[in-house]
Design goal:
By secondary structure, this protein is α+β, with helices and mostly antiparallel strands. The chain has a domain at about 145-220: ACT domain (Alpha-Beta Plaits). The protein has 21 helices and twelve strands. It has helices at about 5-10, 20-35, 50, 55, 60-65, 80-85, 160-170, 200-210, 240-250, 255-265, 275-295, 310-315, 325-345, 360-375, 390-405, 410-415, 420-435, 440-455, 470-490, 495-510, 525-530; strands at about 10-15, 40-50, 90-95, 105-115, 120-125, 130-135, 140-145, 150-155, 175-180, 190-195, 215-220, 350. It has a six-stranded mixed β-sheet. A hairpin with a 2-residue loop joins strand 5 (about 120-125) and strand 6. Helix 14 runs antiparallel to helix 15. The radius of gyration is 23 Å and the shape is globular.
């Protein structure tokens, strides 16, 4: 099942990293939801990429913010350590730089609650702000949030599991999956039930009345994929299926993706699914409009000090440098750089599909949208939607959904080719649609973009999402414009998008760990960068 459009164009979050900031926050928040009481202290153990880049990505602040109950777009995240101290919550961190058996982005969160109760949760951030829980109190589980999920902590005694299942059946809830784990016979056990229906509050209350049940929780992992109940006509799993739908319906790729989102939301019995998805996309477009202009108007230094007004300097020179490229492309590059600057000051941005690559899609689409508005004599006002931008965002979301569902958008898993490369493909397809390219041309543009970004490593200097990330967003814009130009000129890639995506996935798996967001290789290990370590931000 491919993700929702808003798992691709989202989350709306405080930067600088979707996997290391937004994903980390969600791990902390899920741990807090499982806490058996009021939280008095928390310890965090960060592994692999989480450990190596924790300081520059705000991971520590994000984990604590999640434990304190904040959302991914809460501006207080940057102050979470201070807020925890003010609330009397003690926090402590341990960094484990090498744990071969753990996912690259793994965190253990142990919460100490009032009355002496504790809970330990292991979570993994799997890209784009999405997470999964893999252990509770040392017992292996797998909670992805793809379905409504019920978590029950109980004693391992005869008849308990039967009573739990009976209560679920009486409530009219169909069990999709059920897994029970225990530490030892007769000790604490954990039962995770995934259902096909929303879990009613009354069921949770009935379950917790059982004398052998310690407590129960309904788990919701923000950023989890929506799970389709059965099949629906608008669904697709790959680029070839998407193209077939666009030709059959007929319509643009963006139109197909919008219809798919409406169908997904309608399964949740929302009264007006169409209005809901249009409102959500309008919010994405609004935040993108704010993020591309914010640091152009008011530049400010980034967390690590690599960035401070570069976007404004590019923007002010765009008209003078048109001999090196079109004015629209120059503006798009400046907008992309401005987005990264906002993200790296812990400002609110849209991960598209990740925070590290968040400038490419909005920079490209908003710059072209403004040019189209100017050509049509329309005013450029924050309250006026730019022509074709929101429809193009649906197209970008379709490309990103295929990438998330069939490969990866995580730099820690597959290198920067999976972040800026996919963002470049999303922007290339969307630009092509904005200039009335056919669905086939849009997918061709995306394939060209992937080919031109293949093999790009992820080597954040000092573990920060600053250098070379901002420059690669600028380069991603240039590649997106190039790919769209080629596709609209009739230049065809001999390798289609599905095949190109498969090649990117294999290349990502072949990259050594040093080149996958660990700051252990590439530009991150150049002497000029290592010499700046005295200025590294600290937890």
């Amino acid at each position: 099942m491919l993700p929702s459009a808003f798992d691709v164009l989202g989350p709306i979050m405080v930067g600088p990293s979707s996997s290391h900031t937004a994903g980390a926050l969600r791990i902390g928040r899920m741990a807090a939801e499982l806490a058996p009481g009021s939280i008095k202290a928390a310890t965090f153990t960060l592994y692999n990429s989480f450990a190596k880049t924790a300081e520059g990505h705000g991971t520590a602040k994000a984990l604590v913010a999640g434990v304190l109950g904040m959302d991914t777009d809460d501006p207080r995240i940057r102050r979470s350590l201070e807020i925890a101290s003010e609330r009397g919550v003690d926090v402590d961190f341990t960094l484990v730089a090498s744990a071969p058996d753990a996912h690259p982005n793994t965190a253990d969160v142990t919460l100490f609650c009032e009355g002496g109760a504790t809970v330990e949760v292991r979570g993994e951030s799997i890209g784009g702000g999405r997470i999964r829980l893999t252990a509770i109190d040392g017992a292996p589980i797998e909670v992805t949030g793809d379905l409504p999920t019920l978590f029950i902590r109980h004693r391992d005694q005869p008849g308990v599991l039967g009573r739990l299942c009976t209560a679920v059946a009486v409530a009219g809830v169909n069990i999709a999956t059920i897994r029970t784990t225990r530490k030892a016979p007769g000790a604490d056990a954990f039962t995770v039930i995934e259902s096909d229906e929303v879990i009613p509050v009354e069921l949770l209350e009935a379950l917790t009345e059982d004398p052998e049940v310690a407590y129960g929780r309904v788990l919701f992992i923000a950023g989890a994929r929506l799970e389709a109940q059965g099949t629906f006509d608008e669904d697709f799993s790959c680029a070839s299926a998407l193209l077939a739908l666009a030709e059959e319906m007929p319509g643009s790729i963006g139109a197909v993706m919008r219809r798919r989102e409406i169908a997904l939301v309608a399964q949740d019995r929302l009264a007006n699914a169409e209005a809901s998805v249009d409102s959500a996309m309008a919010k994405v477009a609004k935040v993108m409009g704010e993020e591309v202009r914010d640091t152009l108007a008011a530049p400010r230094p980034s967390l690590g000090g690599f960035l401070d007004g570069e976007a404004k300097r590019v923007f002010e020179r765009e008209r003078a440098l048109t001999l090196l490229g079109g004015e629209v492309e120059g503006r798009a590059i400046a907008y992309a750089m401005a987005t990264i600057e906002r993200s790296d000051t812990m400002g609110v941005i849209v991960a598209a599909p990740t925070a590290g690559a968040s400038g490419i899609v909005p920079g490209s689409l908003i710059a072209l949208g403004e040019a189209l508005a100017e050509a049509a004599g329309l005013p450029l006002l924050p309250t006026v939607a730019l022509p074709r931008v929101e429809k193009a965002l649906w197209c970008a979301a379709a490309i990103g959904a295929i990438a998330q569902g069939n490969a990866s958008v995580s730099g820690a898993e597959a290198g920067c080719q999976a972040e800026t490369g996919i963002a470049c493909a999303m922007a290339a397809a969307a630009l092509t649609q904005m200039l009335y390219g056919s669905p086939a041309a849009c997918l061709n543009a995306a394939a060209i973009a992937i080919a031109n970004m293949l093999g790009l490593v992820c080597d954040p200097a000092l573990g920060l999402v600053e250098y070379p990330c901002q420059l690669r967003n600028a380069g991603g814009v240039a590649q997106a414009f190039c790919a769209a130009r080629l596709a609209l000129s009739g230049v065809e890639s001999p390798v289609g998008f599905d095949e190109a995506l498969g090649a990117m996935d294999r290349v990502g798996a072949a990259l050594p760990a040093t080149l996958r967001e660990t700051a252990g290789g590439g530009l991150a290990q150049c002497p000029s960068i290592l010499a700046r370590c005295k200025d590294c931000p600290r937890i």
